């Protein structure tokens, strides 16, 4: 890793250098390596500078179904400490997000309730548990009372920043980072009321080094459970930490996704939980017009692309390539043609990617050329056209339907009609296209890109 500017306050007011987030390896989709999952999650956090707009329904499963369902529409209703309410408003939050409406009353209830919450990135989970921890702390007590674990150093820093921001007007509450590089002597008695860190270091601080007394923890938060379980070691460490906590400690677990493995892990860590799930919006292809273009090679695909651009007005387009090399080549060719192009590619740092996505979102570039893996989490409303310069395939070379839906699903949002064009240059890619048609039970029509009238028609 390379060093970046900036300092964070560590324990006992020592400062820690902030190591920049740097990944040498490219993202590689879902079959991805653990670091890629964490990096993707970090990228999502960095690009979600505001709440994700969601119309999804929240599903609440209460531990005690007889107790009345309590949800809030304002932060005032939560009767937060003034210092915290000021922090919330200072962050620009006017009202609780969907997940916060239900999760916050549960998390702040007396007696404390355990919670498992699942909702996609950017829906306000981090802000919710940050507020819960800050609310539960007794600043007069100079020992650690709330413990939060995150899967990586960078994710821990990111969450810590939210807690620091929210607690800005509550300076009596102090935060320490239990992350690599923050070395403390055995037996040091930590005074910070909140500790955020990675499982290994937190475990050391609780057991070997006796820096935190786990028996005095009243809130335990496990963030990004889906990323956490990707590493067996982290899973075991998390469970070992949880076992040291007192029975009455409130356990909170958050995850963006909820496949079986996450659920099994969650059940081991959180006894008698309330459960909140934000149902995923069903993405459909109904509002998207899909076409394919037959070409012989990549140069012909490029010509077809230029013809489409020449014939229709495109607000913003995303173009997907299979490899970084093709993406690089294509963006250079498009630039030669006078297009203002952004290239999102696997060898960039997470910060660089976040900056490019932000510029694209602001409309500074009209075309974004990217490989698959960089694009998850990007949610740009004004994208009207998606071009699959290469069709998405899985590691076995078959159609990757989920990725296809993800890619083109972003064009037809909010009832607007979107356009998706697939470039076919071989028998194999035709075969992939047929698999996609079959999977979604939807015919994809052929488009003749030499016929400008025909292209104009599809954009109407
Ligand atoms: N009630 C709110 N009103 C306005 N903005 C909010 C609110 N809650 C959170 N946000 C903002 O929305 C963005 C996403 O929130 P947050 O990071 O808490 O979501 P998340 O579900 O934890 O997502 P991720 O898993 O990506 O971290 C942040 O920029 C946060 O500041």
TrEMBL record:
Principal location listed in the UniProt entry: cytoplasm
Enzyme class: hydrolase
EC numbers on record: 3.6.4.13
Motif Q motif boundaries: 73-101
Residue ranges of domain Helicase C-terminal in the record: 287-455
InterPro entries reported for this sequence: DEAD/DEAH_box_helicase_dom, Helicase_ATP-bd, Helicase_C-like, P-loop_NTPase, RNA_helicase_DEAD_Q_motif
MF term (GO), any: ATP binding
Domain Helicase ATP-binding: 106-276
Cell location: Cytoplasm; Nucleus
Catalytically driven reaction(s): ATP + H2O = ADP + phosphate + H(+)
Keywords, comma-separated and alphabetical: ATP-binding, Cytoplasm, Helicase, Hydrolase, Nucleotide-binding, Nucleus, RNA-binding
Highest taxon above the source species: Eukaryota
Protein's name in the database: RNA helicase
Gene Ontology cellular component annotations, sorted alphabetically: cytoplasm; nucleus
Record domain DEAD-box RNA helicase Q: where: 73-101
Pfam family, one: Helicase_C
PANTHER family per record: ATP-DEPENDENT RNA HELICASE DBP3
Organism: Oncorhynchus mykiss (Rainbow trout)
């Amino acid at each position: 890793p390379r060093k970046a500017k900036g300092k964070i306050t560590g324990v006992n007011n020592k400062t820690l250098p902030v190591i920049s987030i740097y990944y040498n390896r490219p993202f590689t989709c879902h079959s991805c390596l653990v670091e890629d999952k964490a990096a993707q999650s970090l990228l999502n956090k960095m690009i979600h500078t505001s709440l994700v707009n969601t119309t999804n329904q929240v599903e609440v499963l209460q531990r005690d179904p007889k107790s009345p369902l309590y949800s809030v529409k304002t932060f005032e209703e939560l009767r937060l400490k003034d210092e915290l309410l000021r922090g919330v408003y200072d962050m620009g939050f006017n009202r609780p997000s969907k997940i916060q409406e239900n999760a916050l009353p549960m998390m702040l209830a007396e007696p404390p309730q355990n919670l498992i919450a699942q909702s996609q990135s950017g829906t306000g989970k981090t802000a919710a548990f940050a507020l819960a921890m800050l609310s539960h702390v007794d600043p007069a007590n100079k020992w650690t009372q709330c413990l939060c674990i995150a899967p990586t150093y960078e994710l821990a820093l990111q969450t810590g920043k939210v807690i620091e921001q929210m607690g800005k007007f509550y300076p009596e509450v102090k935060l320490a980072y239990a992350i690599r590089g923050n070395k403390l002597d055995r037996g040091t008695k930590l005074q910070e009321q909140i500790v955020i860190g990675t499982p290994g270091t937190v475990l050391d601080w609780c057991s070997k080094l006796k820096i935190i007394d786990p028996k005095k923890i009243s809130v335990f938060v496990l963030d990004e459970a889906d990323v956490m379980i990707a590493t067996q070691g982290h899973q075991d460490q998390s469970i070992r930490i949880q076992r040291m906590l007192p029975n009455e400690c409130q356990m909170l677990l958050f995850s963006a996704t909820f496949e079986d493995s996450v659920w099994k892990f969650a059940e081991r860590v959180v006894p008698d939980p309330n459960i909140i799930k934000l149902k995923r919006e069903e993405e459909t292809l109904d509002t998207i017009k899909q076409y394919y273009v037959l070409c012989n090679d990549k140069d012909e695909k490029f010509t077809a692309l230029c013809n489409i651009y020449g014939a229709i007005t495109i607000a913003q387009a995303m173009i997907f390539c299979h490899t970084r090399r093709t993406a690089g080549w294509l963006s250079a060719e498009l630039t030669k043609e006078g297009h203002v192009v952004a290239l999102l590619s696997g060898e960039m740092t997470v910060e660089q990617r976040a900056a490019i996505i932000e510029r694209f979102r602001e409309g500074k570039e009209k075309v974004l050329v990217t490989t698959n893996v960089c694009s998850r989490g990007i949610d740009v409303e004004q994208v009207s056209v998606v071009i699959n310069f290469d069709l998405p395939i899985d590691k076995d070379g078959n159609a990757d339907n989920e990725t296809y839906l993800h890619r083109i699903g972003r064009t037809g949002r909010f009832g607007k009609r979107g356009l998706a064009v697939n470039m076919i240059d071989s028998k194999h890619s035709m075969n992939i296209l047929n698999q996609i048609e079959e999977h979604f039970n939807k015919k994809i029509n052929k488009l003749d890109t030499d016929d400008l009238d025909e292209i104009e028609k599809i954009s109407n």
